[in-house]
Amino acid sequence: MKNISIESAISKLIFALDADNYEEALSWVQLLSGHVGMFKVGKELYTAVGPKIIESIKDIGQKVFLDLKFHDIPNTVARAAKAAVRLNVDMFNVHASGGSQMVKEAVTAAWNCADEIAGERPIILAVTVLTSLNNTDLAEIGFPRTTGDQVLHLARLAQNAGASGVVASAQDIEMLRANLGNKFIIVTPGIRSAGSIKKDDQKRTLSACEAIKKGADYIVVGRPISTASKPLDACQQIVQEIADGLAAR
Questions:
Q1: Where are the chain's structural domains?
Q2: CATH class, 6-247 region
Q3: 218 pairs with which residues across the strands?
Q4: I want to staple 9 with a disulfide (CB 3.0 to 4.6 A). Which of 47, 126, 153, 242 is the partner?
Q5: Rounded Cα gap, residues 204 and 189, in angstroms
Q6: How far is it, in rounded angstroms, from Cα 226 to Cα 7?
Q7: Catalytic-role residue among 12, 40, 63, 69
Q8: Are 177 and 219 in contact (CB under 8 A)?
Q9: CB neighbour list of residue 61: distance below 8 Å, 6 or more residues apart
Q10: Which of 62, 10, 21 is nearest to 40 (CA)?
Q11: Is residue 245 pLDDT above 90, yes or no?
């Protein structure tokens, strides 16, 4: 077994700030700073609060994953990507289903903007298939492929378009690694703590240890921490599961 530092494990944990107001979000940031590697700001929080919460997270010295899943005409997404870079986020995402031209223009715009302002180039992820969707859902929408085939198709598209990596279900990690290599970043949402996977809107999920062992670079965790009676203890348990997964690789 490898000797894995807790710091290495912490760096792979992204906490989902699923709050609808600034005060609640900031309280989570203050509680978990130093215990997670990054904070995810999604649609609910960003719509309610705006850039203020990102500025506050960065002021504390923490990293931000802006999870707005940009999906529009290429020019609009490129301009949104530049705006994300100016907010100094460390990671943001677009929908791969927006097409290769959209992804290419987002990557080019973001990296050119980062170079112009002498900032760090953010990780740019493409969302493949939401973890709330399964084969039945895809058929309902009109996609002929299974979830696995659709994920691989969109991931290849994203990689060829210059994206840093993808957001994908833990159940797709091994397939993606086999086809796209070890340098392509995989961020896995919908993660649950071992022994506590329960029925909710996430249909394709695994435990933190299993996801990391399979090769996820980052995992996103929300409710298993935020709804726990002792959130910090729950966070530390997941960090240990990450460490165990890294050691088992």
A1: 6-247
A2: alpha beta
A3: 187
A4: 242
A5: 10
A6: 21
A7: 69
A8: no
A9: 33
A10: 62
A11: yes
What pLDDT digit, counting tens, does each position of 87-109 carry? 999 999 999 999 999 999 999 99
Could you identify the residue written with the tokens 């896995």? 188
Q: Please say whether the beta carbons of 14 and 221 come within 8 A.
A: yes
Q: Name the token pair of 13.
A: 């944990």
In whole angstroms, what is the distance from residue 195 CA to residue 242 CA? 14
To the query of whether residue 69 is one of the catalytic residues in this protein, the response is: yes
Instruction: Determine the average pLDDT of the residues in 210-234.
Output: 96
pLDDT the model gives residue 132: 85
CB proximity list for 120: less than 8 A, separation 6 or greater: 90, 114
CA distances from 245 to 197, 207, 209, 216, 237 (A): 17, 10, 4, 10, 12
pLDDT of residue 201: 45
Structure tokens given for 7 = 């710091």
Sign of the Cα pseudo-torsion (30, 221, 177, 123, in order): negative
Tally Cβ neighbours within 10 Å of residue 139: 12
Residue-wise pLDDT for 140-197, tens only, equals 999 999 999 999 999 999 999 999 999 988 889 999 999 999 999 999 998 876 655 4
